[in-house]
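Note to self: keep these together.
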Amino acid sequence: MAVENWQDFLKQTDGRIAELRPGIPGVMKGFSEIAKGAIGTGALESKTKELIALAIGVAARCDACLGYHAKACIKYGATREEVMEALGVAVYMGGGPSLMYAAEALSAFDALLEDEK
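Structure:
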């Protein structure tokens, strides 16, 4: 899927996720704790972990993952060059389908970075 407006897409996705919260509160709380534990600084800093998450989003072909992790890459100070290298690894690992999603991930990063300005 080609996302036309990443901010709108993420707002829609946030709304859909919000509908899940009351129905599966334990799962949502657990997922939030996993995310905090996975992205928190340890041997790898948060920026590196978000670059990995973005690459996995490409390999898993998860549109929302591209937007959320591109936004987090920006939050943690990733450069476009760092994003490009992470996307290169995703393409290496996932072949042609990952190449198509890498293009979408770069679109998400560029659009969301522009929105930050």
